[in-house]
Amino acid sequence: MHAIIVVAHHDPRSLTHGLAGQVAAGLATKGHTFEIADLAAEGFDPRYTAADHAVYRGQAMPPADVKAEQARIDRADALVVVYPVYWWSMPGLLKGWIDRVFSNGWAIEYDIQTTRLVKKLGGLQVHLLGVGGTDEGTFERHGYDKAMNTQIDHGIFDYCGAKVVSSQLLLESEIREPKVHLEAAWRTGQGMFAAQNQQVALSS
User: How many domains does the chain have?
Assistant: First the structure.
């Protein structure tokens, strides 16, 4: 099985990048393949322009950079998104990647005239790892955890038909021992395709 790990952080020495690497390491222990998409290092342009809006309205094909990202996801059985929590959500770089890449005609088929919606990513598994500096109590007390689940898990991925298999907030990242979060990321990678592996074993 193959996974694409999307990481949205400008610093390659960050915990966010370390977590992406541990997800990859966990996948490798089970013989799975992976590709790490480092949006900052690759210089992905997150700006949603008139060209992207024309794609949404069915008046143009996606630009080359968007088609390349879509092809990456099409090659994968799972999408892993690793990101720091900025203002109780994802960074602008990641949001812009989603705005542009999860386009009408690829992630969904939306008819502007009839408002009919077809979800097109039903075969994609999604794993989300958000890295936050504050504690669990703050997220629960203010409802930030539920808001992020509504906005990201349901509002983005479920809207396209993708299945969010795991969604984790790895919190207190600035005071908690990094090993705790790195081990959680490794377990995510190692167990990512466990159900499929079990099905193969039972059928063989």
Answer: 1
**CATH number where 37 lies:** 3.40.50.360
Nearest CA to 160 among 70, 87, 85? 70
Please give the residue range of the domain that contains residue 198.
2-203
Phi, psi of 181 (to 5 degrees): -75, -35
Instruction: State the DSSP code for 42.
Output: H
36: closest CA among 67, 64, 8, 68? 8
Per-residue pLDDT of the chain (204 residues; tens, 9 = 90+): 999 999 999 999 999 999 999 999 999 999 999 999 999 999 999 999 999 999 999 999 999 999 999 999 999 999 999 999 999 999 999 999 999 999 999 999 988 788 889 999 999 999 999 999 999 999 999 999 999 999 999 999 999 999 999 999 999 998 999 999 999 999 999 999 987 655 444 344
pTM of the model: 0.92
